Amino acid sequence: MDNKEVKSAIEKIVVPKEKVFDAIDKGLKMSGQGKKKKVLAGSAAAAALLGITIASGFVNPTMNKVLANTPLIGGIFHEFNDSMGVELANQDAVTELNQSLTKNGVTVKLTNAYFDGNVVSITGFVDEDVEKGHNEKGEVSFDMNFEHNKGDNDPWLNGKSTDIRKVKGGYNFQWKMEYPYKSFKENSTLPITIHNINGIKGEWNFDIPIQQEKNSTLVIDQEQGYTDDEVKIRIKEILTARVSSSLIYETVEKYKDDEIYILKAIDNKGKVYRFGNGTSLEGTAQEDGYHSTIRTKMTKIKSNINSLTFYPQLTVADPKVQQLLDKKSFTLKSKRFNLGLQVNDITKKGSKLVIDYQFTGLSKELSKHQLELFENNLQYVFLLVDKEYIGKINPENPVPPKNHSVHLNKVKTIDKKAAHFQSTFDLNGEEKLMNFKLENTILQFNFSSFFPAKELQPFTVVLPVGNE
Length: 468
Hints:
This protein is an alpha+beta fold.
């Protein structure tokens, strides 16, 4: 076969584009050894695909089109291991931006945006003058808000992530946000205000167009109850965009702070669907319990499947317990489980407070792994707080009062078999408890982190006939 025949044969090959991107996605996810290795894995996957056609000096035009339209090699989405962005770029569904502002010597340029399903992504570049700020070299942090919101009361900040890559002359970045509202707008503008970068103040203001074609909707509306756990799940509908789908479901719990997550789903043909973090759309207290409506990103649903089996998980919340430190020995009891904390002694040594305690109600001796978990969790589950400030903690956003509370502590295991520990609190460290007196201090304890999440029985929903 001569070169012309070889070239003709190659051009007749049908490129399975979905499988190409699945392979790339798997390559990007193969390594758990950090971001640098993930990039290498992705590059290797791309190189393997290229090798199919380039080794002989020919390039299949179909493959060439896929690679030309997709920023795989040196592209911003490939750089951030974003397979969704790669696929959307291939479908010409990414909005190119060219917005640049310089404030106080620091230039920010926004380059691309996309909106698919539940995810909004914005990529950009900040120049190396940002290194004149307070952060360590290589670190970039943005203090910012969306839609003219202020501070942490900005729904766009819930679940927002920032990824940074050092490049010549500065840093590339990607912001990913979960769309925070119940209903979608196909075309809208997202105002962005960056207040400071690495402590360098300025008002970098941008208006970003975000566009999404209308989602297709698959209405399901099927419920599963769990009597023993006093919870229910109703699968309401699945919305499908270009690359991803979003699941909308409702949960009902007897206890307000219990949470149900869906770990995965499997269709009747064996395909596994994964889920992202949930966005809370609505929450109400009703006669039968606390109702929450959640939307979460999921793998794009396949057409012509008959059913989905969901695998839910329940995280149990136990109300916090507390005790005034006007006595040296006392017992704290879990409200929902047979677990207790016996405080044996409290000693103040200079600016250090040492609390000696042991757990009661544990069914067996702690394994090495359980002991490590206990020691880790115990660093964070205590809170010492001035009793005058305890009423100022917002239960919906329980930020401890600055200079009047301490929760970080150093844990020492006294007797593993007896689950006996000591915690040492620095009253004058990074967290402070000013004017400390035992009789004016409350100890709060949270048992919730000692109860592992419970995997609930999987359940199957039948999809409407004619799922396309």
